[in-house]
C-alpha cells in the first residue's frame, strides 16, 4: 500500500517509520504542494489548526482515500481545554470537510517516543483506531501488520471524542512532568 504522510514532525516521522517497518511504501507530502498524487492512505500528521486548509486544498484529490486524522485539538495557549465543540471531535470535523473520504482517528493516544520504541512501559504500543468505514479500518490495521505496533478497533468515528479526551489528558500529564513524553497509557491485551 502507498501511504502519504502530510507533516514531517516527530509524529509524522514516527508514523512513517512504522508503516515502512510493515513493508508499506511511504512518501512525505510537503505543505503547499499544488497537485500531489496521494497514496491509498493519507496521514494528516499536522496540528488541528492546519487541517481545515488542507481539507479545502486537497478535497478533490482525497476523494475515496483513507484519511487518518491524528490531532489532539488542544488549546495550546492555556493547555486547559479542547478547541472543538464538546459533542464533537477533530476527526468528525475533518470527515465533514472531506465527505468523499474515509476519515479514521488514530495515533492521537500515543506519543512519538512510544511509536518509535513500540513499547509503553512493559506493554506493546497499541494504536486505537475509530471510523465509520469498516473496510478502511481493516485496511489501516493490515497496513501496520508487521510493524512493532498493535492496532485496536475503538469503534465508530464518534469514539474519537473519547480518544481525544484521553490524548488531552495524556498530553497535559506529560506537560506537567507527571508522565514521560516517552511513556503514556498502555493497553495490556
TrEMBL record:
Transmembrane segments: none annotated. It comes from the Bacteria. InterPro entries: NAD(P)-bd_dom_sf, STEAP_metalloreductase. SUPFAM superfamilies: NAD(P)-binding Rossmann-fold domains. Gene3D superfamilies: NAD(P)-binding Rossmann-like Domain. PANTHER family: DUDULIN-RELATED (PTHR14239), REDUCTASE (PTHR14239:SF10). This is Dinucleotide-binding enzyme. It comes from Limosilactobacillus gastricus DSM 16045.
